[in-house]
Amino acid sequence: MDVLHFLFGLFGNATALFLFLSPTITFKRIIRSKSTEQFSGIPYVMTLLNCLLSAWYGLPFVSKNNLLVSTINGTGAAIESIYVLIFIFYAPKKEKAKILGLFTFVLAVFSAVALISLFALQGSHRKLFCGLAATIFSIIMYASPLSIMRMVIKTKSVEFMPFFLSLFVFLCGTSWFVYGLLGRDAFVAIPNGFGCGLGTMQLILYFIYRNNKGSKEEAKKPAANGTAEIGVGPPEKPHQEKQANGKVLQDEQV
Hints:
The protein is built from ten helices and no strands. It has helices at residues 2-21, 24-33, 42-57, 67-90, 93-119, 123-143, 146-155, 163-182, 186-209, 216-219. Helix 2 (24-33) packs parallel to helix 4. The model is unreliable at 216-253 (pLDDT under 50).
């Protein structure tokens, strides 16, 4: 049981790392054009909060046998921080102020959770408090691709929902769901079970519409909101961005 638990944790680390790194295509474009264009920075900030809370939850003094949760989410937090800082640097003044404010809010929320859990709570109460916080934002991150799925149904095109990203969302959610079940940890199993279900829905949509060119006019319209993991379209075209949600955030939970 312990060996299986460890193996599913390792596999979860690998699949989550792929999701965290998938927005690099978007940020290469942002750096090259020196503009955030119509991309949204919100998913990256929210994924950062999810990673921080999940990494904190996985620490030994909060929950036992979840160190692999901390390692990948700590890595994810560092990666998402870089994305957020790049986005702030290249964003127009109004968007820069909005994302900077949200970034400050995320750091404040994480600091509050960490301090309260350290100095006001102990044992099972500490685990419950940190687990609930991590679970809520994990579900939000996994839910962020819903806007992309709605777009796929509307346009009957999977241009902005690449197969391998959808596959890794499914694999990531499934591996951490099983990891949570084997470790009897509801705070890991529940949000990732949700992610597994959404990943399954994305794959079903992909196979339904994979050979359908869809509505070209609708599919080519750029959107300001979306998800970091899922929103990776062709570099030459405007495309939809992530989760939540990310990711990526789709991101993103682990």
